[in-house]
Amino acid sequence: MRNKTKLPTMADVANLAGVSSMTVSRALKPDTSVSKSTREKIQKAADELGYVLDTRASEFSSGKSGFVAITIPSINNGNFADTVKAFSDGLAEQDLQVLLGYTNYHVDREEQLVEQLLKKRPEAIVVTGGMHTDRCRLLLENSGIPVIETWDVPEQPIDHVVGFSNLQASELMFEHFIAQGHKKIGFIGGDNSRDSRGRDRYLGFCNTMEKHGLSSERVSFQELAPFSMEPGASGIRSIMKEWPDTEAVMCVSDLIAYGAITECQRMGINVPDDVKIGGFGAYELGQFLNPSITTIDVGAAQIGKFAAEKIIELLSDDGNTKSAKIVKTEPTLIKRQSA
Amino acid sequence: MRNKTKLPTMADVANLAGVSSMTVSRALKPDTSVSKSTREKIQKAADELGYVLDTRASEFSSGKSGFVAITIPSINNGNFADTVKAFSDGLAEQDLQVLLGYTNYHVDREEQLVEQLLKKRPEAIVVTGGMHTDRCRLLLENSGIPVIETWDVPEQPIDHVVGFSNLQASELMFEHFIAQGHKKIGFIGGDNSRDSRGRDRYLGFCNTMEKHGLSSERVSFQELAPFSMEPGASGIRSIMKEWPDTEAVMCVSDLIAYGAITECQRMGINVPDDVKIGGFGAYELGQFLNPSITTIDVGAAQIGKFAAEKIIELLSDDGNTKSAKIVKTEPTLIKRQSA
DNA sequence: TGTATAAATGTTATCGATATCAAAAGCAAG
DNA sequence: CTTGCTTTTGATATCGATAACATTTATACA
Hints:
By secondary structure, the first copy, chain A, is an alpha/beta fold. The first copy, chain A, contains 13 helices and twelve strands. Chain A folds into three domains: 10-53, 434 Repressor (Amino-terminal Domain); 65-164 and 301-330, Rossmann fold (3-Layer(aba) Sandwich), CATH 3.40.50; 166-297, Rossmann fold (3-Layer(aba) Sandwich), CATH 3.40.50.2300. In chain A, strands 2-1-3-4-5-11 form a six-stranded parallel beta sheet, with helices on both faces. Chain A has a four-stranded parallel beta sheet with strand order 7-6-8-9, with helices on both faces.
């Protein structure tokens, strides 16, 4: 069934319109010098044949692919979605498309994905996080295109960075707890070996506790493969069972906090009167829950916007102007009802 | 900066390894006849040069692109994410990649997107919904590849369909309301001109009301551009203000229901005692909210899975075997606390 | 009207891989 | 060591568009 009838090519259109295929090529682009009459003639021929440009040939011939690759950990995550949306919007004016890939929080999967993406010769690549396999790092370094690491500030950046310190960001929440006089503080996170951002948020917990001479034992690490709400429920159950006098808990994301808060309600524990619960990421659902979720806003959309701007700058650049290698966004605490 | 140093090509690898580029091409694929020793030699040369295959050239030369296009209305929507995930997983074994595009619930945007995607010569295309502009329909019909419409059962399908009747699905909820003895029933939806699935759910409301001789006036249509929770809050406010004796309301999605339920809580209205609220789509967050959200499960993942299977079948097909043009999934009511 | 300049169109070579066919090398059996 | 087969490798044409350059046609102005 498929490909039985071969699709029309530019030469077919040229034939029908009685011009050369080069003229067709020009007529189909917006800003080239083709007379109005021939352009109309060609447009008519193209419509008649149902001609659709083959960008594979086009990209191959012109040498530029017209798109930028971006990898994010998970498709179903409002935060990364915000980043991607702002990123796409920022690149749209430059006629650059976005090719998206999901690592599922696995560095091995990331390596595989990055290789796949590079094979398509993007004009730049954006990756989430600063933790990569050695080979992935090498691939990116040798790619010959701008590389931007986001959502993190790696110690040894590959190239450019648009991110923030997850460690410092999570400290905001713990300092907030402590300023309210709490001492028995806990943390619910995920598998730190897979998610370096989650790990840094946990380190922020440890640092702050240590700084104030408090115990950092009240932790629960849950399997949160498809980063979700259930683990928040099990996490808070486990913490409240082992340390019933816990006063405040920060969760590695708002989705976890959502699971934890709603589970508290089911257990008859009042949030925030009995225990305070903080989230991370300023997801929309946290704003509407009762109690609304106190959280850390990391400026997800801003990251995407900045990354897009940087890419536009780097691509238009003739290699002279030096732009900042590292752009930091400023996480802020959003005080709401839950903590 | 970019492209300054040209990336190595297959010919470079061939040179270094002392073979022809054709042999390199073969060695880099898994199942071709190349002797073990030369394959190792070539692999070594490729690694040394940091060679990465240029799929643009590869696809162009071989004539197949190796990917399938899919359009969905919104990136940040758990339901469509589920469909896409199942779809990707289903195609992964066939070495088919997925190229994703977002229509933002606009048919004009869809037309533009479909054209963009077709330019890249996918091997098949999946679109969400059965409402298209005339030109978009034409583009799809002339594309020469399998087309699958999903999440809907159009009256005049373009080619293949994997979907369900949104009308019948929403009737499940209204019949559920009525079976509980309710008569004063409402609906919160969005802009029907943009979202045909939402419109069909609304029609399901009207049909059921009419069938039982009830009024279908209690409706609120909200602007829900980035399909979200706030509109649920305003929607329920407006309905409860105008018709305070409303007994049950269905929302066009769980996200809207979430906004509506939490707003009720803030207004001191008890759900489900004072008013019952139903959602649509079986989103994860509805399962954990107190009260948990009664909803319609449309089998989002199943749609993706079926679509993938159909594509594999159609692509491997020699054009003989006739497969069903229309595959329907069976929406079910998930009875929880809110209704 | 002729010359200078700009605009419109055509010609040819090319991007990097693979399909296809041809040739060489390896191998088994007599 | 020769014949006949399989396996491995190579040479060449080709996919469809565009870059770069060449040429023709239109336009302006003296």
